[in-house]
Design a protein that fits this description.
Length: 141
């Protein structure tokens, strides 16, 4: 199985070990805070997406947010499981993140509903850096 097949997008969105806080095994996505203009954003970057300042620091992002919008996908490359769901979640920090929904049960998902951002470690590949994936979990799931 190739690395690409091992981490198919329907399993969650991939992030590297520099994009995840693993403190106390409580995995959280890391975002950025700009010390110049106070903007917060995702994903991790070496400069501010708003003012281009390089005075930025990583911050752990909330694990709860509100579903801004979502959709179910029924057509995908042949290795992917369909249907799968994607969406945008607004975090209390003012950051909107894109990701995959845990399931496609219509009654589990509603615009503005609270969702949990689940981050988990991918299976290790010998000699490769640790990869993580995240997805959105409904409170009704
Ligand atoms: Zn800035």
């Amino acid at each position: 199985m190739s690395q690409i097949e091992q981490f198919l997008p329907h399993e969650g969105r991939l992030v590297g070990e520099d994009e995840v806080s693993t403190q106390d095994l409580d995995y959280k996505l890391l975002g950025m805070h700009c010390k110049s203009c106070n903007a917060k954003f995702f994903p991790v970057n070496t400069m501010c997406l708003f003012c281009l300042s390089e005075s930025v620091e990583k911050i752990p992002l909330s694990t709860e947010g509100n579903l801004y919008s979502y959709s179910f996908i029924h057509i995908a490359p042949k290795q992917w499981k369909v249907p799968y769901g994607i969406g945008y979640v607004d975090l209390p920090e003012g950051v909107r993140i894109f990701g995959k929904l845990e399931d496609t049960e219509p009654e589990h998902w509603k615009v503005d509903a609270k969702v949990h951002i689940e981050v988990k470690e991918c299976a290790k590949i010998e000699g490769q850096p640790t990869q993580y994936q995240y997805f959105f979990k409904s409170s009704k799931g």
